[in-house]
């Protein structure tokens, strides 16, 4: 590693007391490990950290590995000291060590209240036979994807009593699963667990052109409208008050309250649904997709 590379790295670390070398950027992480580390930091300190995308600079990508004598990316530095990569950050987040390092209040370790029907409990128990020293884990990620697994406890988990079962989880799951209802369903499509989570944001709503136009005409807070199409298409024409969904727009949305009304539009209403669903899963509760897209608006 050259002296110039060392100087560049140290200049970055001088920029912020919390600095993350990652693949991609906080808005669009380019690997699962970087994505998870960003989620943890945002959960704790919001946008109060700086980052550098090592994929854009091979010199820094290799140099930071030598600088911190750490072979993988991401790497988190606090007050110019290397904390570690994704696995260490995840463990420190769950133990409360990361909160302490960042001078934050220790995490709430209250076990969530989860209800379960007798049928669901019976089927889960049947699947837990011969599980050895493994325990039943529940995971609810920040997009409310939910899964059960059998794992060995690490000692820092929150443990909830579900029926007469002990269910282990990390602190993020504990916060997102309070009030969850677990049942068993037998349907034509098959049988399985049904999990109802009251904390999950409401589904994306369809919004017609007429409804959007009426909304604009009222004194009710107008929605923020975003066009997901290419620059060329948006320049040819778009919905009134719409902005193109680019990096700056994404950053703007992320700074908004979760109750802010958001409307997404594309050419016919399909691609925009993906964008709408993305932000719904990020916790936004008033997300709409323009039915028929710009074609319907332009009729």
UniProtKB/TrEMBL annotation:
One of its GO terms (cellular component) is mitochondrion. SMART domains: RHOD (SM00450). SUPFAM superfamilies: HesB-like domain, Rhodanese/Cell cycle control phosphatase, Thioredoxin-like. Residues 219-299 form the Rhodanese domain. This is Glutaredoxin-related protein. PROSITE patterns: GLUTAREDOXIN_2, RHODANESE_3. One of its GO terms (molecular function) is 2 iron, 2 sulfur cluster binding. The keyword Glycosyltransferase does not apply. Pfam families: Glutaredoxin, Rhodanese. NCBIfam families: Grx4 family monothiol glutaredoxin. InterPro entries: Glutaredoxin, GRX_PICOT-like, HesB-like_dom_sf, Monothiol_GRX-rel, Rhodanese-like_dom, Rhodanese-like_dom_sf, Thioredoxin-like_sf. It comes from hydrothermal vent metagenome. Keywords: 2Fe-2S, Iron, Iron-sulfur, Metal-binding, Redox-active center.
